[in-house]
Structures are given as structure tokens and as C-alpha cells.
Design the sequence.
């Protein structure tokens, strides 16, 4: 009976983290905008929605993943600022949920895992509020690190495969954090091999 109650508590906390992470980012994204940084992916995503593509039809100085993801949000929610903020808010929520799962896997306990996950949702995306290349790249790198760690601790290759998939997604956002994590994983495997 205690295990069932604990599962219900964890499920409730997952839902709480999701909605809180979404709300906190949505709230702070509406406070203000920095035109040069805030709308960088807005324009390029709108171009994609209209049939133009990066590097072929217009120049893009970052990776292409954010632009294509955002064009999907524009497709479903319309081309407006809310659809732009939904993207970042959803990623903020997902990051909180995956962090909570990771901390539970490390046996930190429910209370500490929840506190850390909520703190992450407060600190991660609300600082900019909208899709941003650095945040997405770090998002994928850290999730890659989470899966890499769990894969090594539980000796499950599937998690290691997922870690490299997320690392590649980071590369498609921005190349700088990707390369640091790539070399970290490479040297760690090299160390374990010998």
C-alpha cells in the first residue's frame, strides 16, 4: 500500500513540475522583450513556414533545429508571440520533468528531487522566456549527460544510445556546448576501456 501511495505522490509531482515549469516561463516571457535576441528564431521559423529553408534561401548563424521546431509550433498555434512562448515553456517543463526523473534515479529522495527540479524550472528558461539557441543546446547536452550517467550506473546500452541522440540534437542547435560534452564522453569511454 505504501508503494502505491508513493507512486501516486511521484506522479502528482511530475504533473506539478510540468505545469509549474510551463507557467513560470510563460509568465516571465510576457514581461518584456529584447528585440535583437528575443525574435531571432521568430523570423527564421516564419520563413520555414512559408517554404524557405536555412542556408538555401536565407543565412542562419546557428543550428537549424530550433527554427524547424518553432515552425511546427507556428503551424499548430498560429504565427503569434504566444506560440513562440509555448515552445520555450514546453522545453522548460520537459527539462524539469527529466531532471526530476534523473534525481529519483540517483536515489536523492522525493523531496530533494522535487526541490531541485522545481529550482531548475525557475532558473532554466525564464531568464530569456523564448526559444534561444544556447538554452536549447544546453538542454540537449544536459539531458544527454543524464542518460549517459544512468546508462553507466544501470549498465543499460539503450540509455547510452539515447545520450548520443540527444548530443547530436545539441549539435543541430549550437556546436559549442556539443563539442565539450562530446570530448567528455569520448575521454570517459577511453578511460573505461583501458
Sequence:
Amino acid at each position: 500500500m505504501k508503494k502505491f501511495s508513493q507512486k501516486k505522490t511521484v506522479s502528482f509531482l511530475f504533473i506539478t513540475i510540468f505545469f509549474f515549469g510551463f507557467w513560470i516561463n510563460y509568465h516571465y516571457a510576457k514581461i518584456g522583450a529584447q528585440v535583437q535576441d528575443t525574435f531571432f528564431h521568430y523570423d527564421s521559423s516564419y520563413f520555414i513556414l512559408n517554404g524557405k529553408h536555412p542556408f538555401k534561401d536565407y543565412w542562419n548563424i546557428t543550428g537549424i533545429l530550433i527554427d524547424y521546431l518553432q515552425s511546427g509550433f507556428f503551424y499548430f498555434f498560429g504565427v503569434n508571440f504566444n506560440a513562440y512562448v509555448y515552445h520555450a515553456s514546453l522545453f522548460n517543463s520537459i527539462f524539469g520533468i527529466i531532471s526530476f526523473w534523473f534525481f529519483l534515479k540517483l536515489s536523492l529522495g522525493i523531496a530533494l528531487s522535487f526541490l531541485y527540479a522545481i529550482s531548475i524550472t525557475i532558473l532554466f528558461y525564464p531568464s530569456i522566456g523564448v526559444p534561444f539557441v544556447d538554452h536549447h543546446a544546453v538542454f540537449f547536452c544536459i539531458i544527454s549527460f543524464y542518460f549517459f550517467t544512468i546508462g553507466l550506473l544501470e549498465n543499460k546500452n539503450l540509455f547510452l544510445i539515447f545520450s548520443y541522440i540527444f548530443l547530436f540534437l545539441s549539435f543541430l542547435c549550437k556546436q559549442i556546448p556539443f563539442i565539450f560534452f562530446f570530448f567528455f564522453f569520448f575521454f570517459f569511454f577511453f578511460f573505461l576501456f583501458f
